[in-house]
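Researcher: I'd like a candidate sequence for this fold, 375 residues long. If you have to choose between options at a position, lean toward the conservative one.
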């Protein structure tokens, strides 16, 4: 079968740390390993001059995003993208993010009659509520939907999200899914040294959160659940992995908690495997890569029943889920898990087994198939 020739346009990419960047990198790497040509366009990053660019990568100027340090919106480099399309001759364009750069790529591709697909990764419209900008939500939704309606297909991780977008009038929404690197994330990464750094005795409970520390992540429900756990298990410790605008307030409110900052690669994998319970209260995810990583690490997971949790967790079998936005049920389930080591062990073993079928290879193949079918 003829290899794909694809130009992929994104506003975020590693070494930036977020789920969209990680997912995009996995797709690019997986497609290139299979012999497809993938050109990448993204905003310039601070360390580009130090580490250089990947092959077939082009950068454009960008502007910082408020409340997202280190991330940039790509400027609408329409002419630059047009020249690139004419020079490199891709057969299709995939737009990862809906910023000015994504819109410019859409217009440049459509002007040349190229098929365009897009990814829906983030509920940016819902974020408006968390930053006191609820009045912006209809405008942001219109901006997002306007781009996706002009694409031949929009790729999403879950059937739930596909149905939501289809109801908003977005055509040809296709479910691709998300994978997890089970070679990186596994229980064998458990490291007693991490637990010593966290100030934990061998038999004490380490509760973990991994992700952006920001209002849209519903961190208050994790705080309340852990407070209930600590009241019954005084030697427990809460570990926060990540960064974001909520970090200063969390540090000030919880001086006894452990804040590690962002972690990646093997160090992140060791954090998962060295903990005992994963608490994730977000309701704003389109997926939530951290849930798959925690499950693959053998970590008992508690989350609301939506997005990745609904797709990956069988409640009471390989993790625990509760009805979305039921904070009381979330705290109750957290207490049940904290007080039952045998339950945590059983769920952790089942979680590892269940993630064996969720590797990235199948997701990359599905992505390529959807692109081939879109003309």
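Model: Candidate sequence:
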């Amino acid at each position: 079968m003829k290899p794909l020739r694809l130009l992929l346009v994104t506003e975020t990419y590693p070494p930036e740390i977020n789920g969209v960047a990680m997912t995009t990198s996995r797709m690019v790497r997986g497609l290139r390993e299979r012999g497809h040509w993938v050109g990448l366009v993204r905003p310039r990053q601070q360390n580009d001059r130090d580490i250089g660019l990947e092959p077939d990568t082009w950068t454009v100027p960008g502007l910082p995003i408020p409340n997202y340090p280190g991330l940039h919106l790509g400027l609408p480099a329409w002419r630059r993208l047009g020249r690139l399309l004419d020079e490199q001759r891709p057969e299709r364009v995939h737009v990862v993010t809906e910023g000015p750069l994504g819109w410019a790529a859409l217009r440049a591709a459509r002007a040349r009659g190229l098929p365009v697909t897009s990814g829906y990764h983030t509920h940016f419209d819902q974020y408006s509520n968390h930053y006191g900008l609820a009045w912006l939500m209809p405008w942001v939704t219109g901006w997002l939907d306007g781009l996706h309606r002009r694409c031949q297909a929009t790729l999403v991780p879950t059937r739930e999200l596909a149905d939501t977008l289809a109801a908003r009038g977005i055509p040809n929404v296709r479910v691709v899914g998300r994978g997890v690197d089970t070679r990186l994330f596994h229980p064998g990464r458990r490291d007693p040294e991490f637990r010593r750094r966290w100030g934990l005795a061998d038999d004490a409970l380490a509760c973990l959160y991994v992700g952006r520390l920001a209002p849209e992540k519903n961190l208050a429900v994790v705080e309340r659940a852990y407070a209930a756990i600590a009241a019954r298990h005084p030697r427990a410790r809460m570990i926060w992995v990540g960064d974001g605008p909520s970090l200063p307030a969390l540090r000030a409110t919880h001086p006894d908690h452990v804040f590690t900052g962002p972690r990646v690669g093997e160090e992140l994998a060791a954090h998962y495997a060295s903990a005992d319970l994963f608490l994730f209260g977000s309701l704003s995810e389109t997926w939530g890569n951290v849930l798959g990583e925690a499950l693959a690490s053998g970590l008992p997971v508690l989350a609301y029943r939506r997005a990745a949790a609904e797709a990956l967790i069988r409640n009471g079998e390989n993790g625990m889920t509760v009805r979305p936005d039921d904070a009381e049920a979330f705290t109750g389930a957290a207490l049940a898990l904290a007080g039952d080591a045998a339950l945590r062990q059983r769920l952790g073993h089942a979680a590892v087994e269940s993630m064996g079928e969720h590797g990235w290879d199948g997701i990359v193949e599905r992505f390529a198939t959807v692109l081939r079918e879109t003309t």
